[in-house]
Each structure stands twice: as C-alpha cells, then as structure tokens.
# Entry
Amino acid sequence: MEQTTIQTLGDELYAALKACTTVAPLTARHPEMSIEDAYHVQQRLMARRLEAGERIIGKKIGVTSKVVMDMLGVHQPDFGYLTSAMVFNEGESISLDSMIQPKAEGEIAFILKRDLMGPGLSNADVLAATEGVMACFEIVDSRIENWKIKIQDTIADNASCGVMVLGDRMVSPRDVDLTTCGMVLERNGEIVGTGAGAAAMGSPVNAVVWLANTLGRLGIPLKAGEVILSGSLAAMIPVVRGDHFRVSIGGIGGCSVKFI
# Structure
C-alpha cells in the first residue's frame, strides 16, 4: 500500500476519533490492505495522537479468544497502544458523549516493574518482570461504522482502543492462578458475562509473552511502569448511558465504572 494512502487513512481515523464519528470500513475501500499495512496506518494514527500531547503508558493485546479470532477469520492476536488520555480511575464516570460505539470488556492488567524485550521470552520472564496484576475494564470503541471490522480494520484503528479503568487493588502474579481465576461481569447488578484467565490465549501470561516477543521482533520494548492489558475474558458488552458495570476476578479484586 502506498505511503500516501497509509497517511491519509491514519489521518482519517484521527479525525474520526476527535469528532466522535465513524468511517466506512477501510478493508471495503482497500481490499488489498495487509496486516502489515494496517500496522503502518496505526503508527500514523498514534503519531497524530502523540503530536497532540498524549503519551504512551502501555500496550494492549486484542483478539485473544478463539471466538473473536473465528469472527475475524484470523488465528493471531493484535496489539495497540494505551495513552495518557485513555485512563479513568476506579468508580469514575465516563461520558458517553466522548465515545462512539463503546463496549465493555473485563480483563487482567499487568503492571511492569522492569523492561521486557523479546523475542525469546518465556512465561517466567514475564512473571519476573511484573510488579502486580489488577482487575480492569477496557472500554473498546471503534471508529469503523457499525463495528464492521476485519482484522486489518481493528489494527489500523489502534486495536479498537477506547479507554481503560484500573481496579481497586494490585496483587502479585505469584499469589493467584492466572489461568483458573474466575471473572464475573455485572451490568446494573445483573451478571452479563463470566470467564476465566484461560480465555486469553490459555493464560493472560501467554498473551503478554506473545506481545513482548512480537514487539521485540520490531525493536519495541515493554517498559517498566507500563500497563499491559492482556485481553478480554468474556464477550464484549455494549454500553448505554446510565449503565454501571463491575468486574470481579477471583484472587485479584474488582473494578467498577459508570457511564453518563
């Protein structure tokens, strides 16, 4: 794909982000777009966000469950960047006027205490570099109209990043079984989703290993102090104004968020 086209698409997604509007699916207009092309578009989008004053505070892993992989017709996860503009505090309210078509995901966040630079990293390397894990919400959002996405669309759109909310406590990853820990997702007091750590590539640790090794091959480290979102443990739940969500993860803690 031509560099001018990549730049134009990245600028288009940035404009949609700022205006809270959607664009037609990129893959419908550019069926030749490869996954590599999509990451170049993502880089242009992120460059615009950083130029506007945001800073990178972490990374996220998407498409970690078999259900989503099957939906998108792929057999690999994707990644995006978390920025300072995406962070909300536990229990804080989020204005829906600032989002487009949000959906809530319950996840496990990893907080790193030292750098990770792949490739060749193992689960033990990730655990040794992790300060702690927390329950969190990723509120995904898409600049692609009606969520009509293929893997290239969501990658270009920074892996459909919206905002995130970190939970009320942090625990050592050695104090909890990250594979079997159960998650309960509630909306307005009603259970709307359940899952376990194994939903994210068999273990959220596997997901972080994949990310560290994938980025390492591109010369990009995971840095000390960064937040790494390891992937949804259940289906995405659409959000409407007035919703109050809470996620609880066994042995880790909880996280809540309101939408106004």
